[in-house]
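In this section we turn from sequence analysis to structure. A common task in structural bioinformatics is to predict how a protein folds when a small molecule is present, because the ligand can shape the pocket around it. The inputs are simple: the amino acid sequence and a SMILES string for the ligand, here zinc ion. Study the lines below before reading on.
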Amino acid sequence: MNNKIKKIIILGGMLLSGILFVLGFTNADAEITIKKKDNRQEIKTEKTVKAEKTVETAKTLEKAKTGKAVKRKGWYTAKSGRKYYYKADGTPVKNRAYRINGNLYLFSKSGILCTKPGFKTLNGKRYYLRKNGTLAVGYRKIGDDYYYFSKTGVMYKNRWAYARGYKFYFGKNGKRLTDVDAVLGKRSSYSIEVNKTKNTVTIYAKDGNKGYTIPVKTFVCSTGDSTPTGVFSTPYKYRWLGLVGPCWGQWCTQIQGNYLFHSECYTEPNDNNSLDVAEYNKIGTTCSHGCIRLRAGDAKWIYDNCSLGTKVTIFTSNKNGPFPKPTEKKLKSWHTWDPTDPDMMYKCRQSGCRH
Ligand SMILES: [Zn+2]
């Protein structure tokens, strides 16, 4: 074959394949050769392939929604930055608290890991998310308050819990109560502990065989250098009593000898409108002649609730008690009555003062 004939054949071939190419490109239903797994070839039209792809995509989306076909395991971070967790069987954790490697996490209804610190409600249960992204468990101080969270991170509400050797009550908002008198109701016996160093009086109630481990409330008081330490049993009570000064005290409960629990001092006998305001304003400091001075309402509580023979333990310690020491506002010199005295509260109402 000579070169001229070769050239013609080649050019002719190129022209023909060009025509075929154009035809193929414009034909929407062109045939496509698909290589199958077993190396057999299958011929499908472009339309068929497109339709099949659409069905496949829908299936994938549907499976992703139900979470059945996505075989993810462990942590997964989506493009949005949201985190998810998949169990070993590929199902995502959602709508619950879930423990992973010893840490408790919270997952929303749609399975998103909750990361914003603070309180969070899920299915009517309260949780607290810490700054490190894990849920609070057990006895925790948050802000100025104490809370209790179960092993699964659920905040305790309206129930008791043991913590640090005590039995505490957590109220309707989850906060630990620092006065459980109303929850407990009146008890047949109490135990009184006086911390001379801190000038606090804490009342305890009995928790069955565990003993007096329920802190009921803490009063602020004033002890004196000569206040005796030790364990005592209250022998006597006096509604009013003349004291060193001279002055007069209300709701007096004898501890031993000349040492008593009583109200702050009044300058006139049996006159609850003659409060020694300067002395009252020292409450919480060590300033008495040895007696344990209390606010009138607190002295009354002991007088009313603690029967004779109540155990009183007086000690010195720098350790804080179960409840914080109450702080008392200072009174103006004209306020010649104790604002906690139930018989004098009308004077506070008349004066419009707030305590
Ligand atoms: Zn007042």
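The helical segments are 3-26, 46-66, 181-184, 277-280, 296-305, 345-351. As an exercise, try to locate the residues that line the zinc ion site and compare them with your own expectations.
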